[in-house]
From TrEMBL:
SUPFAM superfamilies: FAD/NAD(P)-binding domain
InterPro entries: FAD-dep_OxRdtase, FAD/NAD-bd_sf
Protein name according to UniProt: FAD-dependent oxidoreductase
Residue ranges of every copy of the FAD dependent oxidoreductase domain listed in the record: 29-376
Pfam hit, one: DAO
GO cellular component terms attached to this protein's record: cytoplasm
């Protein structure tokens, strides 16, 4: 089994060699820090709106090195944050506008990819959520009964399900490298192998020189904590994935997964899975949720016990795959704000802006965030800039060791809640309710 190497997706297409490292100081109109999908979609949208803008991206490794090239490939319509938090600032109507915007963005990303020739194994196949206990079924409130779930995918122990058609399966590295390509083709320079060490109004200081610009946009998501002055802003939450060896036709038949819909469950420590274009199952979940001091992983390497735990989730869903080989394991970080809700912000007075904190639902949200940042930077008042996540403010996480102890305690509680629910509790465990309150979700 290959562990790390950034991700299985990057190993499939080839890990790129960084190009166009910054040499000395530079000036431009907009400098974007972070070459993931948030930074790249922002560059793309800004260039589309005003092709005369001189835009540069500074990226520590290579475009797509972070979560954008490592994720589970769910281009989903899930809200990037808590409906309750958004409702507090924009009411139920604001939450509904946000839901519609995210839903529309799924098609928008598919349309851009088709128009620009980005081959990313995209299939608008929908997602099947399954409940495997009475408590999960209560939370899911789905329209499918056990027999209907079994007709879609034969998940062991599924008692109910919900099918959301507004979700597409994608190959993350193919998508992000395609977006990097079209951004470069438009003349945006992506300075790879160029780590920002400080971000202030008008200037991004990197290891190789300073880029000055009136507009400076921070698009680092799970890596934000690595930047001076931002350590407690968003928690770098870890998520890990394993990819099996390709399944045989008989194995696919046995589990009845004949379509390409994505698959998720409703456990507190939930899992997410896709049937890859080359016939494997890639299944992800939390693993070790958080590393002390907001540290991130090394090139995606993940712990053996996380691999074992994901394998056991897979075989519990599909007992007939008990002997299946695991070809690859990796992990990455996503950004979690203290109120579990994403934000897109820009201050015209300082020229500083940022977007992120999507809490694991960033694939679609990065595109929406990029278009929203575009409108904010250009000073346009639009439907996008009036979405509830715009200029959303949130308090910082607790200092260490509280942060580490708190997050680990929280996930112990979620595991305990899952355990009780699996043992027959017919409603959401009180432990999980308490954990949610403590977490601020
Ligand atoms: C394992 C995993 C599975 C996931 N699955 C899904 C999914 O199926 N669906 C979904 O919607 N979301 C998913 N997510 C979340 C989603 O992938 C992210 O929210 C999204 O990709 C964030 O994009 P980004 O551009 O904001 O951040 P990133 O893609 O992380 O990009 C940040 C970039 O900044 C660079 N960088 C870091 N520090 C510096 C610095 N100092 N200077 C310059 N550059 C720097 C990094 O190298 C990186 O390229 C998943 C995340 C993970 C980790």
């Amino acid at each position: 089994m290959h562990n790390g190497g950034v991700s299985f997706w990057w190993q499939q297409v080839g890990v790129p060699t960084p190009t166009d490292r910054l040499v000395g100081d530079a000036r431009c109109d907009v400098v974007i820090v972070g070459g993931g999908l948030t930074g790249l979609w922002t560059a793309f949208s800004l260039h589309e709106a005003d092709p005369t803008l001189d835009i540069r991206v500074v990226e520590a490794e290579f475009a797509g090195f972070g979560a954008s090239g490592r994720n589970g490939g769910w281009l989903s319509s899930e809200l990037p944050g808590s409906a309750t938090a958004y409702a507090e600032v924009a009411g139920a109507e604001g939450v509904e506008r946000m839901r519609t915007a995210v839903r529309d963005t799924v098609d928008e990303v598919i349309a851009v990819a088709a128009r620009e020739g980005i081959e990313a194994d995209i299939v608008r196949s929908g997602v099947l959520y399954v409940a495997r206990s009475a408590a999960q079924a209560e939370r899911l409130a789905g329209e499918l009964d056990a027999a209907q779930v079994q007709r879609r995918i034969r998940v062991a122990g599924a008692v109910a399900g919900r099918y959301d058609p507004d979700c597409a399966r994608v190959h993350p590295a193919r998508l992000v490298s395609g977006v990097a390509r079209i951004v470069r083709e438009r003349g945006v320079r992506i300075h790879e192998d160029t780590r920002a060490v400080s971000v202030t109004p008008g200037a991004v200081v990197t290891e190789h020189g300073t880029v000055r610009a009136p507009v400076v946009l921070r698009c680092l998501e799970g890596f934000t904590a690595g930047l001076a002055g931002h350590r407690r802003e968003w928690l770098p939450m870890n998520s890990a994935i394993i990819a099996t060896e390709p399944l045989t036709a008989a194995q696919w038949d046995a589990i009845g997964w004949s379509g390409e819909e994505l698959l998720g469950d409703e456990a507190h420590a939930y899992c997410y899975a896709q049937r890859t274009a080359d016939g494997r199952i890639a299944i992800g979940g939390r693993g070790v949720p958080y590393r002390f001091g907001s540290r991130t992983d090394v090139e995606g390497r993940t712990q053996d016990r996380t691999v074992a735990s994901l394998r056991s989730t897979l075989t519990s869903l599909f007992p007939s795959l008990g002997g299946i080989g695991i070809d690859h394991a990796w992990c990455g970080v996503l950004g979690v704000p203290r109120d579990w809700s994403a934000s897109v912000a820009f201050d015209p007075a300082t020229g500083l802006g940022h977007a992120g904190g999507y809490v694991g639902s960033g694939l679609t949200a990065t595109h929406l965030a990029g278009r929203t940042l575009r409108d904010l930077v250009l000073g346009h008042d639009t439907d996008l800039t009036r979405l509830p996540w715009t200029n959303h403010r949130v308090r910082r996480w607790e200092p260490e060791p509280l942060r580490w102890a708190g997050v680990h305690a929280l996930y112990r509680l979620y595991r305990a809640a899952d355990h009780r629910e699996d043992a027959g509790l017919d409603r959401t465990s009180r432990i999980a309710r308490v954990a949610n309150r403590v977490a601020g979700r």
